[in-house]
Structures are given as C-alpha cells and as structure tokens.
Design brief:
With about 350 residues, the protein is of the alpha/beta class. Helices cover about 45% and strands about 20% of the residues. The chain is globular.
Length: about 350
C-alpha cells in the first residue's frame, strides 16, 4: 500500500514517521518549503519526553509532487480543518477507482472530503494524540492517545481492517463501525479544550480544579445534546466518558474522570492545546471556526441556541484579530453566560 500524507505537521508527521519506521511506503506532501527541505536533507525527527528517533522521509511541496506525475492510492489528509477543501481538491484527479482518503483531522472534515472525492472514497478517522510541529524537520510527540478508523456508512471493510493492522506500529489503532460516535465525542471534548486556550493556564488545571467543572460540564453538554438529537451516541476514549456527563450526569464518577484526565495530562510534554500554540506562539489563525462552526450550525437547525460554543468561537476569533487578550477573564465571561441561562 502506497500512502501519501498531505500535511506533515503534528498528526501527519507522527503517524507517517511510525509507518516509515515500520517499513511502509510513505510520501509526505506539505506546503511548508522549509519543512520539506529539512525532511529531505536530514529526515523527520520525532522528539519524545525521554527519547527520539529520525526517519528518512521523502517529501514534496504540492507543486513538486504534481511534477512527478504520480497517482495516489491511499491518502492521509492531516491538514488543519480550514484547509481541507483546498488541500484535497487538486489530488482528486490523481486518484483511481480504488483510491481513498482518510481524514486525520479535527472536526467533521469527512463530509467536506466526501463532497469532493465521493463518499465511497472517504474513510472516517478519529485521532487523539498530543503532538506539536516545532521547527522544520522536527515534531514534539507528547503522548499517545487513541485512533479509530471506520467507514462513513458504518459498514465493516477490508481496507479499514488493513489500515488498522498497519497502524499497530504506532499504537493500538482500532476499526470501528461507529466513527461518528467518536467524532462527536471528540467535538465535545475538543470544545472544552478550546475554552482552555482562552487563557494561559494548562489544560490539566481545568480538569484538576473543581471551580472549573461546572463550566466544563456546560460546554460539553451543549455539543453532546446536538449529537443525541441526531441519533448519535458519543463513544468514550482516553478517560473521556461522555455518558457520565450527558444525558444522565453521574456527578461523582464524572469528577473522578476529570481528575484522572488531569493526572494523565500531567505526564505529557504537551501541556496546552495546538490552538493555544497557534494563538500565543505562532500568532496565526486557528481551525476553531471550521471545527466548531458546523456544530453550531447543526445545533441551531435542531433548535439549540449554543451560547457557550458560539461565545468560545467568537472569543478565539477576537484573540486572532488582536481584539482580545488571553486571560482568565474570558473564562469568567463564559461562567456569566451560564448564570444568565439559568435565570431563563
């Protein structure tokens, strides 16, 4: 199986490096010329807490790849959500009838991909790992998470099982017939993590400190209720168990799960989200609107007002535009929204 990874950043770089290390045929395509040059000259280095490894990583810019006139078999799309359409559209003409695209992304990007290459050539993927692109040719890998692959129609398939087996070199990748259950579960968890990026506090602080728990509960519930209305049951992963929060909240078990999440996070080298890094370090636009915008749209169509999710997205955009500072006061504003909602 020839694998073309579009986007050699945090997720694409880590997954690709492990596949290459295991002898798989992998090619990277990335728009960052410096990153491409570094990978071709010195390989791709994955830096972990106590060790690191480097693989020879054949890499191309998009223009360079098209000049090779290669077709693509299996495509791992690992770009930010806002770049989905522009990233995959040019590659559609390089695909043959058995080619397919796997979305190693945040959000509901599978729907966008399917609109371009077709639903039958789109495979869903839930990936939760902690990694950051640090510099050309170097990625910091902060902690193993979960990876589930599944067909969009919920069927079992040979191609999904094959990918699951190949990805065992990375970790315990699994095949699932409930891919949207995992995607919506991550959207709920991700909305909570996005809120943490409104401050300079570490993610673990929010799960560790009880004062934040009512807010985490309210944010997660907003997303989970949208999933339920669509007939989707969010699935648990990595100590995040959405069923403890909604629809029947179990206070003690939920609080204990938050403490366990905090404990695990304290062991990772990555202590804040990629969204926080985009805002505080890289000073660039995040994928928040493209990740949570569809959730808001679907929720509003189903009759939910989504005040917290809308406010989180709005605050992130204001930080992107230099109109708001990263501060705990942003969290206090979200708490005030909960207070106002309780009066209605």
């Amino acid at each position: 199986m020839a694998i073309t990874i579009i986007g050699a950043g945090a997720i694409g770089g880590v997954i690709g490096a492990y596949l290459i290390k295991n002898g798989e045929e992998v090619v990277f395509v990335d728009r960052d010329t410096a990153h491409v040059e570094a990978m071709n000259q010195n390989g791709l280095t994955i830096q972990m807490k106590d060790s690191s490894f480097t693989v020879k990583a054949p890499a191309y810019t998009v223009d360079e790849f098209f000049k090779t006139k290669q077709s693509v078999d299996t495509v791992f799309l690992a770009v930010k959500a806002q770049h989905t359409k522009e990233a995959i559209q040019p590659f559609e003409k390089l695909m043959h009838k058995d080619s397919f695209v796997v979305s190693f992304q945040n959000g509901l990007c599978e729907n966008i991909i399917a609109s371009i290459v077709g639903k039958s050539r789109t495979v869903g993927c839930f990936v939760n790992l902690f990694a950051d692109y640090m510099s050309p040719g170097k990625i910091e890998y902060g902690g193993v998470g979960s990876l589930y692959i599944g067909e969009m129609d919920g069927s079992e398939s040979d191609r999904v099982n094959d990918l699951r087996d190949r990805l065992q070199c990375w970790g315990k990748a699994k095949a699932t017939q409930k891919i949207f259950g995992y995607l919506w579960s991550k959207l709920a968890y991700g909305s909570i993590l996005t809120a943490t990026a409104l401050t300079n506090k570490e993610i673990a602080d929010f799960f560790e400190e009880r004062e934040f728990h009512p807010l985490l509960n309210a944010i997660g519930t907003e997303v989970l209720q949208v999933a339920e209305k669509q007939g989707i049951t969010p699935e648990p992963f990595d100590n995040w168990t959405p069923g403890l929060l909604y629809p029947n909240k179990k206070d003690i078990e939920l609080e204990n799960s938050y403490f366990e999440i905090a404990r695990l996070l304290r062991g990772y080298t990555k202590t804040r989200t990629g969204i926080w890094r985009d805002l505080a370090v890289r000073k660039r636009k995040t994928e928040v609107l493209d990740q949570l915008g569809p959730v808001i749209s679907i929720g509003e169509k189903l009759g939910f007002t989504m005040p917290l999710t809308r406010s989180i997205v709005s605050m992130i955009q204001e930080i992107e535009e230099g109109q708001r500072e990263m501060s705990i006061e942003n969290i206090n504003e979200l708490k005030d929204i909960i207070k106002e909602s309780s009066k209605l």
